[in-house]
Amino acid sequence: MKPELLRYLRCPQSGQILVLETSDTITTPDLESSREIKEGWLVSEDGQHRYPIRNSIPRFVPESNYADNFGMQWNHFAKTQLDSHSGHPISAKRFWKATNWNSDEMKKCWVLDVGCGSGRFAEIALGTGAQVVALDYSSAVDACYANLKHYPNLHVVQGDIYALPFAPESFTFVYSLGVLQHTPDVSKAFAALPPLLAEEGQICVDYYEKSLKSQLLPKYWLRPLTKQMDKERLFSLVRNAVTVLLPISRTLGHIPLTGNLLKRLIPVANYEGILPLTETQLQEWALLDTFDWLSPIYDNPQTASTVRLWLEQAGLKDIEVLKAGHLVGRGRKF
Ligand SMILES: C[S@@+](CC[C@H](N)C(=O)[O-])C[C@H]1O[C@@H](n2cnc3c(N)ncnc32)[C@H](O)[C@@H]1O
What we know:
Blueprint: E1 18-21, E2 25-26, E3 36-37, E4 40-44, E5 50-54, E6 57-58, H1 68-76, H2 83-86, H3 90-99, H4 103-106, E7 110-114, H5 120-126, E8 131-136, H6 140-148, E9 154-158, E10 171-176, H7 186-191, E11 197-207, H8 212-215, H9 219-226, H10 231-253, H11 259-263, H12 279-294, H13 304-313, E12 316-324, E13 326-333
Helix pairs in contact: 1-6, 10-12
This protein binds S-adenosylmethionine.
């Protein structure tokens, strides 16, 4: 953790400022801003609540929680979807298409990534020169930190969207991509974000879209069983299934006219013809995303009208709700 993060942090239980207790500050001699506090404690002003800093990451949540599947997933596939690793601007395209933000405006601002996973979108935000706080509930934060710690403008926090450890109005940009549908109360999860925006600050969130077509996806027939399974067992099952199902899906996908429809019947993430991946990457992304479909405890798609209502209820202006791959909602604080 870098010392400059401290002024934005608050005790998630009491809202009090936090005091740093540490004997272990690593200072890079030539670069003041790259000081890292590797181990220590953050203590609420009244001394009632203590939060550890472990492996440079302040931790505000229990080690094990409902997002353990994501911790496993993002530590296993730590680099898979990072553009710097895949060699393709897939995450960048999704980020800019969803947010429509101006990279020059982001430079030097404080930006919050809620549900950062292993950091595919944080990497894009960091590239603008912004100070990026990447937060996740799960041990995905360890993968994110390992991936991106060479950025002097990175700050990683393990925390819960329902008890965010930040002062109100701390951020000029807040985004949460691929996350909110995986929380138990999606409306409450969204409502936690606008209070963190500074005046004129901008927010962008996305969701799986709720529609008849999406409800018929075969993952929804399987999830009642798979979401309850032991994650290691499910992972090995998915690994075996993908070796069989991916070739079937690819064969169906090549059938003229009906191919795209037919391949939707096979419960495997098949990006052939959709993303510019090599053969090895196609297999790896298939395993990652098929596990990502089947393992989360929560999968709550939303409609455009609900997303608009939440943005309005939060008192935002310049509201836009659109389909940009996923269902995207954007707005700006008055
Ligand atoms: C599908 S992953 C998306 C990760 C990343 N945004 C991406 O698109 O690669 C969803 C992430 O949301 C996180 N998450 C779920 N519930 C959360 C909560 N209550 N607070 C913070 N993060 C949460 C999970 O741990 C997981 O890393």
